[in-house]
Protein: Biogenesis of lysosome-related organelles complex 1 subunit 5
Amino acid sequence: MHKAETKNIVRDISNFYDTIFNHPKENVEKEIKTFVREFELNKNGREEASLHKCIVYTQDAPDKYTDGVASLSKKLTGVNEKLQDAKPTFETLLSELTELRQNHQSRSDPYQKERKEFLKGIAKAKKNYEEEMKEREQELVKEYRIVYNLM
Structure:
């Protein structure tokens, strides 16, 4: 009995080896087709189950949500009325705020203009000073070159 089992094992191994290594392209194509077929079968089953769940949810939806929609509608009507009442108040507050901003800007404008002019003057004076220093430096370089060349 042990020899029979060994023969079966050897035969199975040789069949497996022959299948895998002697015809690999055909076997790979068969495996791919089998995989795709199984995937499509499972996919269709999942899609049907998902569609069935959606149908159940949509059939139950009107019963579950009708009361909620009605109460929300009532609350939103009340909110809309409150918004309409509050709108004039906010419009007056907004106009007062813009007026205050304009007044604040008109008060601080002269100082800002003077400060900007002052800063521009300082920047211009600094630029002129730097240019003058560069010119003097160039003159000194020329003088020392002349003195150095004479020595």
About this structure: The chain has one domain: 2-150. Residues 2-150 form one domain. The chain is about 100% helix and 0% strand.
